[in-house]
Every structure is written in structure tokens, then in C-alpha cells.
Amino acid sequence: MLNINFVPDDYIQNNESRRANLMYIVLFAVVMAALGGSFMTIKIRQRALGAKEKLVNAKLAHAQDAIKQFEDLQARRKAMMKTALTTAELIEPVPKSLLLASLTNNLPAGVSLLRLNLLQKEPRQVSRPVATSKYDKAQAAKAPASLPEISQEKLLETHIDIEGIAPSDRQVASYIECLSTSSLWNNVALVESKEVKIEDTTYRQFKLTAVLSKEVHLTKDDIERIRTRAENALRVF
User: Fold this and answer.
1) What ranges in the chain are assigned the alpha helix state H?
2) pTM of the entire structure?
3) Which residues, listed in sequence order, are joined to residue 193 by a DSSP beta bridge?
4) Percent of the chain, pLDDT > 90?
5) Which residues of 117-126 are buried (b: 16+ CB within 10 A; e: fewer)?
6) Crossing angle, helix 96-105 and helix 220-236, to 10 degrees?
7) Does residue 49 fall inside a structural domain?
8) 140 domain-assigned
9) 46: in domain
């Protein structure tokens, strides 16, 4: 039996074309929807990453500020420590009242002080001899290349100029001997001794120099003993 198709071929082709176009459109829509979803997902992730980046940058900036403050505090601490050490080094190892008491206690009978001048000086630098022989050069090579740094405050020496009057040179010599035997003073020397008249009485006007010992260490008992002797000397005077 023959099958007779009464539908025209053009109609069938148009239907197939419409179905193919519809399928393409659906596929295109699915692809576009997938691309749009991927795009939106990427955008959301970018925003999330941007927010995280801002948060990390904010934390980093805060950490940098904290580090800078810490460095400033460390610099201030070092400056304060340096100032404190310098101040501690400049503090008098022996109070001036005790120095005056020591000078007064050692005064022989009839000797009076006219003027005291206390000042700090840098010690004289002693030049090292130049190594000429092989032995000297070998010893110089064994010496340490660098010495520990010493602050200028520790190198300062306390000098005192003493001016007074005495009945004779014997009292002046006795006073120099007393100061020389004291643990507070070094290099006691007579600078000048001349004759002067005060109200028709002849005296010896003298000038001395001395250096405060750097090795002196006074205890509380020493301080109290010096002050007691000074008070007694003032009462007798």
C-alpha cells in the first residue's frame, strides 16, 4: 500500500528550520545564562576580595603605625637612658659639703682659707711611643684593635684651687702633708707662697692645687665622721 504525503516539502523544511532555530535560541539562552551567572559570581568574588584587601590594608597601616610608635618609644627610651647615664656620670662622686669639710678638718692651727675654686678638666693626653723595633711592633700587633668607648664625662678630672693664709711656711707644709695623706685628694702641689702683711702682722699667703681622686668610695660612716669633725672644727674655731 502506498503512503501518500499530502504535506508540502516547503512546510516540512520550514518546521525543521523553526525547530532548529528554537533549539539554537534555547542553547544560546542557556549559554548566556551560564556566562551571566559566571560573570556575577566573579564580580561577587572580586567584591569580597576587594573588601578583604581593604581590611588587610587597614590592618597593615595600623601595624605600621604601631611599629612606628614602638620605634619612637625605643628612640626616646635610648635618649632617656643616655641622658640618665650622662646625668649619673656628672653627679658629684663626693658632695661639695664633704669636700669643704675635708679641707677644713685638715687645717692646722692659725691657717685660714680665703678662696676655693672647683672645676672639671679633661686629662692630658699622653702620646704613645712609636714602635721601632720588631719586638715593639709585635707587642703592638698583639694589642686589641679597638678599646671600649669611654664617655667624656668619665674622663673629666675634678681640680681644686685653694688659696689661704698661714702664720708661716711650716703650717703651709703641714697642710699640704695632711691633704696628701687624705684619700680624697691626689697631686697636691704648692703653686705660690708669698709674704703679706695684714694689720702690721706678717702672714704667708699660699696657693695650692689638688685633684679629686677617682677611686674614692665613701661609706655612710665616713660621711658622718667627716661631718662630725667639720662641726667640731667650726665650734673650736
Assistant:
1) 9-90, 96-105, 134-142, 152-155, 169-181, 220-236
2) 0.46
3) 206
4) 9
5) eeeeeeeeee
6) 50
7) yes
8) no
9) yes
